[in-house]
Amino acid sequence: MALVLGTTVPDFTADSTTGSLNWHSYIDNSWAVLFSHPADFTPVCTTELGAVASIHDEFTKRGVKVAALSCDTTEHHIEWIKDIEATSYAEESTVTYPIISDPNREIAVLYGMLDPAEKDKQGLPLTCRAVFVVNPQKKLALSILYPATTGRSFAEVLRVIDSLQLTATQSVATPANWTKGKTCMVVPTLSDNEARERFPKGFETSEVPSGKSYLRITPDPTND
Predict the structure, then answer these.
(1) CA dist., res. 111 & res. 205, Å (int)
(2) DSSP classification of residue 8
(3) How far apart are CA 181 and CA 178, in angstroms?
(4) Does residue 46 sit in helix, strand or coil?
């Protein structure tokens, strides 16, 4: 069953490369990212975990805890880490975040991560490339699913985390291709008078053929 945005993510306890991990305790009032992989010792997965290792500090700066998951054992994960750290994608970084083991697919089923088109040598379905961003209230804030043949852009994952963290506390939305620090949109639920009070730097209304005043642009309210 697919998870629904805004609902509490399922809890689980599983073995990992850093020991036994309880997911809700691991989150512990922080933002968190859980990202799954089809299998250990596979090319795209190896580049992805290396890429995350290389930018792990960027997640930490944002107060985000990271965990990976695949359907192999912890013993396989530990051996695989040597390959991950040897790739250029890791940029000489080490894998310090946990890789969760789910050989019985219990977590994969719980989170709706199984890809029926991808199977292991025993014919069992593998996990897709799922990304789940969880807020400090343990609610699902974002989910993205990728096929096995497409590696993820973790720069995009960081970008959406920046947006989620901003919009969680400010009455703005972020437009297409937004990055941290750029102008935002005033949310439609605010009147012009409310927006003037909320945003000391003001806002600009873009003229459109419909004559409707819904495109209201304001500087990022968190910028000094």
Answers:
(1) 41
(2) B
(3) 9
(4) helix
Q: Which residues contact 106 (CB under 8 A, 6 or more apart)?
A: 12, 14
β-strands 31-37, 64-70: how paired? parallel
Lookup result for tokens 């209201």: 216
158-175 pLDDT, tens digit each: 999 999 999 999 999 999
| 218 vs 165: CA distance, rounded Å | 17
Let me know if 37 is exposed, middle or buried by CB neighbors in 10 A (0-12, 13-18, 19+): buried
- Residue 161: closest CA among 139, 132, 130: 132
Per the DSSP assignment, residues forming a β-bridge with 140 are: 134
Give whole-number Cα distances, 46 to 68, 80, 123, 223, in Å. 12, 8, 22, 37
Residues belonging to the chain:
224
Pairing relation of β-strands 216-218 and 64-70? Answer: unpaired
* Max CA pair span of the chain: 63
Query: What is the pTM assigned to this prediction?
Result: 0.92
Residues 124, 216: Cα–Cα separation, whole Å: 50
Could you tell me the pLDDT band of residue 88, with boundaries at 50, 70 and 90?
very high
Residues pairing with 14 in the sheet: 21
